[in-house]
Specification:
The complex is a heterodimer of chains A (431) and B (554). Chain A has two domains: 172 residues, Rossmann fold, CATH 3.40.50; 148 residues, no CATH class. Helix content of chain A is 34%, strand content 21%. Chain A contains 13 helices and 20 strands. In chain A, the strands form four sheets. Chain A has a nine-stranded mixed sheet. The radius of gyration of chain A is 23 Å and the shape is globular. In chain B, helix 4 links the parallel strand 9 and strand 10. In chain B, the strands form five sheets. In chain B, strands 6, 9, 10, 11, 12, 13, 16, 20, 25 and 26 form a ten-stranded parallel sheet that branches. The chains are: A alpha/beta (431), B alpha/beta (554). The interface between A and B is large, with 71 and 69 residues. Strand 8 of chain A pairs parallel with strand 18 of chain B. Bound molecules: iron/sulfur cluster and zinc ion. The site of zinc ion has 8 residues of chain B, from strand 9.
Chain lengths: 431, 554
Amino acid sequence: MWHNKIGNITNAVTCPGCGLSCDDLQLEVSDGQLVSLEKGCTLARSFFDTALTPHDHNPMIDGSRTSLDDAIAQSAELLRKAHAPLFAGLVTDVNGMRGTLEVADHCGAILDHCNGDGLFRNIRVLQDNGWFATTFTEVRNRADLMIVVGNQCFDRFPRLIERVLNPEHSLFSSASERKLILLGPWDNGSLPTDIEAMACTVIPVEHRQLSDAAGVLRGLVSGRPVNMQAFGDKTGDQLVELATQLKTAKYSVIAWSATELDFPHAELTIQCLVDLIKDLNLTTRSAALPLAGTLADVTSNQVCTWQLGYPLRTRLQRSYPEHDPLINRYQTLIAQKETDLLMWISSLSPQVVPPVTDSPTIVLGHPGMTFENDPDVYIPVGVPGVDHPGHWYRSDAVCPMPLGRLRESDLPAVSQIMMLLNNKLLQATGE
Amino acid sequence: MLTKLTGGTLYDPANAIEGKVRDIYIRDGRIVSTPPASEPVHRSYALDGKIVMAGAIDLHTHIGGGKVNIARTMLPEDHREHVRRSTTLTRSGSGHATPSTLAAGYRYAEMGYTSCFEPAILPVNARQAHMEMADTPMIDTGGYAMLGNDDLLLEMIAEGAEQETINDYVAWTLHATQCIGIKVVNPGGINAFKFNARELDVDDLHPHYRISPRKILRTLSLALNNLGVPHPLHVHASNLGVPGNFHSTLSTMDAAEGLPIHLTHVQFHSYGAEGDRKFSSSAAEIAEAVNRHPNISIDVGQIMFGQTVTVSGDTMRQYANHGHAHPNKWTCMDIECDAGCGVVPFRYRDKNFVNALQWAIGLELFLMIDDPWRVFLTTDHPNGAPFTSYPHLIRLLMDRSFRNDLLSQINPDAAASSHLSTLDRVYSLYEIAIMTRAAPARILGLTDRGHLAPGAIADIAVYHQADNPERMFQQPMLVFKQGEVVVEEGRITRPINGTTQVVRPDYDPGIEKRLGDWFEQYHSIKLQNFRISDDEMAAGIGSAVTIHPCRGRN
Ligand code: SF4
Ligand SMILES: [Zn+2]
């Protein structure tokens, strides 16, 4: 629930620990400390533990403690001097991103997310071809055949099986009808234990073979000749059988995490999976379940898209938005020295620290963040869903989940910092 | 503070004022009656020779929500060609068919619009729709929540739930989603597509629930009537775009059994299957039926030639039309046992027989439906064309020779098979004011806008007189929002933010037990997290609610 009031025990808490965004957590917080946590996975526990650990809340300039006013003044000064400021990280809630975009518009900044590479593997497919996708509640209730691509989804989204793939209740698809196919570089010893309850088949293929596998499946589904040479006999047979299952399934689902698919041209692999799904829909139903949303990549991208008309990797230097998914990649901009200031926004995890750069750096960061080299300005900010209410997007980009407030805190939200910065910048230009 | 607008020529159909010179007084954002002469006027505007109307209201425009953002993502080319620079007052933006939220708000205001309604809010996506609309400055907003493809309602109807129970669910949905109306899109069809059905006509049975779209329509229209919700059921009928679909549209009218319903983008639902190409205009049949049924209102969904994108909750029909995608890319989505969406870019060509006839059919509907209080000016933005083409559309309605010039340029077979050349009717300014102000306010139950009598919000558009109505409506001289000038000569002079318009019919909170159990078992979101509170609207989403009265439950 979105709430500003604080109660000691809170039900139905939304977890921003990963893109699954489970909203059934029960938390007890007393004196700002975590007393108990139910329903959450280990990732959730570490998220709330870290967020609720006491930290120094003081802003820093060049590693020395300072006041918030001075930190804002110094940041505004740096922003005013910059010709090509880069706003990256962008791990924040909807209102944090709204504020960020307002300041970005004012300063002519370039925008990218810390997980931009993963995010854009999916977005580029959407931009070039579109897809046929589905969401968690549909999968819970309709899916009778689920293919999980790669081998990291269960680590990245720990409650995927319980919450989505094999729920206790389902409207149209009973547990006995549900088949799970793991298509990825698995060796049998490493399967997660909660899979045991499901009818599960492993088809071992390497990441780089995934597009070939999708191509073979497409060919088999549409009755075209296929070349199976890339696969051994056993895997080949499994793919033939999977093609038959896909054709006869009532509602098949193919899930992947684009962040996991970290190899050159992985967007083409996603394209192959999407093409397979589109083909299947000629005769039966099938849909993609792209798993994303962790570290608010979907959140900041959604807000950017509606406010600027483009996804992230957009620049505002010429006083209007210009988008390029390759040129505006933050790592490249830093490496090629095409930016002269970095504002790094990272409010959910102390581990997501700014990249190394020669340019002046402003960090709006998780209060638990530590630095090898002190940034020019560091402003510790509140954690959304802990220190302040907010919204963030689940994996599917359809359901913005409400985040509540769990404790009294003097940590400002990113949105508040952005408002202060904007006011300071407006003052300076005399508007 | 008292503001006076002096000497303007008023077109205020709600108060039966047609082209009369009247002064208007404004205090605290509202229009007030003539104050005593002793009271000082703080600001006055001389409007001699100017046309004065209430701010325009768009009751059907896709300006916010998940599918619009998918369309923006899919069309960088649309955005590259249409940029809006930031100024000292306004933010930057981009896009023509799917403008960014800020650009859409500015452009609407620059055309004299002061209230806009997003017609297809998936309940589960309501937060996003409201966030996007909160980021659409200058205008007040509101939305219609989609029901009638959600498994929960279909299950209730199939199990023979009491109408009372369904009324409670409908009312609960309006509260939970912060909406002002209910829309049904291809009743049962979006859901049936999830069971692999590819069509579902008004009297077909849903493959799983074994209920017909007719039953769904009847149940929902009755619920809104019982609840006293002012806006009748907003209906996107079955078989959108299918040749011969006018039969389905007539059956849909029939299914209402005399209860009020609003049929949206009827142009897409007025097709016959006659002629060599098995595609013909049935606008005459539809217009005749609308004229005969006083319980029916429609908006047209006029198409204009050029590039746009179709965004719809109707996954079934969007999937069926994906082969027409231009450029060749499309997206569909099944969403949360709630509904779905489909995004298919489209280019309407004047030399193409079907597209040209679609254009003519829309105009035929405008010209053959007698009562301007029951037909609304829309392009179903962006499905028929972007909303920015409204001034052009107004000219087509007001200027017969202009219309006939354009008719002579379209595909000649389409022109020949249309009645358009024989239709002499031209709309008057008064009728334009009805269909863009007075009537939408009335059909939405908004008594505080759409007119210029004391008590109304001072949302006012002032136009220069011009022979060319397109020029006139493209760039108002002044636009007042809540009594403040926000646009001068078509440029934003004062950025502001609006509120969200909602209704709050009574319901038995006991319904939450049944809903909560269903959510608990089948949904991936909890009921508590589904509902949007007023606090959340104001402080979190960024748009406070304005509550409009219901008639009371009966
Ligand atoms: S699976 Fe993800 S969202 Fe769910 S509890 Fe674990 S970390 Fe949180
Ligand atoms: Zn529409």
